Amino acid sequence: LKPKISPDFSDSVESETIQQTFLTCEVPFKSRNFSEIEHQLHYVWYKDEIPISVDNRILELSSYPEPVKQLSSSSSRQGTYSCVVTVEGIADRFSSQFVNYYLSDVATYTVFLQGVDVSVGYFVSLMKPMNKLISDVKEDFPWLFRGFEWDIQMSWKTEENMSVQLLLYFKTRFWYETQLYFVLKRKFKEEVLTITKSTSVSLELESADVCFEQALPSSSTSYNVTFLWKSTKQTKSAVSEPMCLNGIY
């Protein structure tokens, strides 16, 4: 028994399509009528390997309850989906393939904040000057993006400091993404000292889904090599390893 998710997207899609998009976990039965066994089947959907509370063979991308994100928008619905099927009376679990669902008109950035013994709420308050910075960019370069949203991705605490990672979503066009990246990096570098001058907090801004830099030092990855990066049309979720490699030298 091998469940299959359909449709299996081969490329990224426009964010407007998410209102009409649903995934189906199809269960093939060669020798039995599906209707005879359908009531014995149970489904668990996963997004980025995190379970979603939907026990149904159909998953509506625009309306399922988000397992982690506070933000409920088309941007946060991006990810890698899979489904697992169980049959009553059978201990085995049957897993589908992984399906990537990413938006071609949404650019994702990570903001990494770190400080000494401060709360998540304190970090969230820092988004006020960040929002102003981005609004200023939009005012100066109105063609670069049509809007933005942000959401907490994760937070963790050690004996020495508190860290929070945020996701910023920019609605833009693919052909503007390179320009948007360098404008944001320049503006962020100019303003970050103002934002943090009276605090002990550090901030970093990076693109999470498109690789723009010419090379990535091996010290930044778990590999003992240097990677060449390239721009890509496929939007990707935030990860710790490069996903758009152009070669190794």
Helix content: 10-25%
Determine the strand fraction and express it as a percent band.
Answer: 25-35%
CATH architecture of the largest domain: 2-Layer Sandwich
Q: Kindly report the average pLDDT value.
A: 75
**H/E series:** EEHEEEEEEEHHEEHEEEE
CATH class of the largest domain: Alpha Beta
By DSSP (H or I, 4+ residues per run), the number of helices equals 4
Instruction: Write down the Rg.
Output: 21 Å
Query: Quick one: biggest sheet?
Result: 5 strands, antiparallel
Q: How many beta-strand elements? A: 15
State the low-pLDDT regions, or none: 214-249
Based on CA inertia axes, which overall geometry fits? elongated
Any idea of the CATH topology of the largest domain?
Alpha-Beta Plaits
Structural class: alpha+beta
Distance between the termini: 43 Å
Tally of distinct domains = 2
Protein name: Ig-like domain-containing protein
Could you walk me through the main structural features you see in this protein, from its secondary elements to its overall organization?
The chain is an alpha+beta fold. The chain has two domains: 4-101, Immunoglobulin-like (Sandwich); 106-207, Alpha-Beta Plaits, CATH 3.30.70.240. The protein has four helices and 15 strands. It has helices at 34-37, 120-125, 127-140, 177-196, and strands at 4-6, 22-26, 41-47, 50-52, 58-60, 79-87, 93-95, 99-101, 106-115, 147-157, 162-171, 202-207, 215-216, 227-229, 245-248. Strands 3, 4, 6, 7 and 8 form a five-stranded antiparallel β-sheet that branches. The chain has a four-stranded antiparallel β-sheet with strand order 10-11-9-12. Helix 3 (127-140) crosses helix 4 (177-196). The longest helix is centred in the C-terminal third of the chain and has 20 residues, at 177-196. The model is unreliable at 214-249 (pLDDT under 50). This is Ig-like domain-containing protein. Residues 3-100 form the Ig-like domain. InterPro entries: Ig-like_dom (IPR007110), Ig-like_fold (IPR013783).
